[in-house]
Amino acid sequence: MFKLYPMIRILTVVAATFVVSGISYNAVAAATSWGYSSTQSLVQGTLVSLDSSKSNSVVATTTANASKMIGVVVPGASTTIEFTAPGANIQVADSGDASVLVSDLNGSIKAGDHIGASPLDGIGMKATSAGMTVGIALSNFDATNSLTKTVKDNTGSSHLVHIALVKVVLGVGTYAPSSTSPSYIPSGLQALANTISGHATQPWRILASLAIIVIVLTTMAVLIYASIHSSLAAIGRNPLSSPSVYKSLLQLGVVMIGLAFAALLGVYLLLAH
C-alpha cells in the first residue's frame, strides 16, 4: 500500500472536482441515504467517514479514518429512502448501488473487487488486505475515461494514478481476504482438510498426509497378500495346520487395525498442528 506525502492530499477536492466535471455519472440506484453536515466540499462519489470532532458530520475518508467510514456521497433526492437532519448539506448512501470515485493506486479494479479507502482523501481503491470497505465493484475500472495525476510515495518515487468512477454495490463492512490454496490442491480436498483441522490447512501438510495414507495402504496390501498367499500354501502342504493359520490371520487383522489407527492419528496431528 502506498503512503503519500501530506501535500498530495490536495487531490482530495481538486481531483474529485475535475473528475465530476470530466466524467459522466451513471444513474444512482442507492436504496437509502442519510443527511449529514460537512465543512468540506464533498462531491458526488466521495467516500466519507464520521467526523470525530463534530456530531452528525462527515469528512472525506482516508486510510487514517477508514474505520469510521459510513458510505458515499450521492445527489439529494436520488435514493429510494432519504433521511434528513437539521443542518445537513449532503446525502450519504449506505446501501444499493452508487457511483464511487476510485483510483488504480492499488491496482486496476475489476468487477467483484472490494473497494476500500486509499491515501487520497475520499477516493477509494482496490482492497487487497483486511480492513473496512464500502462495497463491491459492479464494473471494471475504465482508465480511458479517467483523470490522470502524478503522485509520490514515501520514497520519493513518482507514480501515475488514474481516478475514475466505478459502480459499486454498497455495503460498508470489514473485508478479510480469503487465503487461497495452490491449484494442485483440489478445492474439495482442501475443504475436507480444513474441516478436520478446524482451520485453514497449509498445502504441504495435505500432501504429506496423502503420502502417509498411500504408504500405509500399500504396506497393508502387501502384508495381506503375503499372509494370504503363505496361509494357502501352508494349508495345502498340511491341512491340519488350519488352526494356526487362522490364528495368524487374526493377528494380522489386529496389526492392520493398529496400522490404520496410527496412520489416521498421524494424519490428524499433521493437519491440526
Instruction: Tell me the CATH superfamily of the largest domain.
Output: Head decoration protein D
Oligomer: single chain
Structural class: alpha+beta
Distance between the termini: 32 Å
**Mean pLDDT across every amino acid position:** 82
**Number of helical segments?**
4
Q: Can you summarize the main beta sheet?
A: 11 strands, mixed
Computed CA radius of gyration, to the nearest angstrom: 31 Å
Portion in strands: 25-35%
Supply the number of structural domains.
Answer: 2
Uncertain parts: 1-27
The CATH topology of the largest domain: Virus Head Decoration Protein, Chain: A
CATH architecture of the largest domain: Beta Barrel
H/E element order:
HEEEEEEEEEEEHHH
Count of β-strands = 11
CATH class of the largest domain, named: Mainly Beta
Share of helix, binned: 25-40%
Mass-distribution shape: elongated
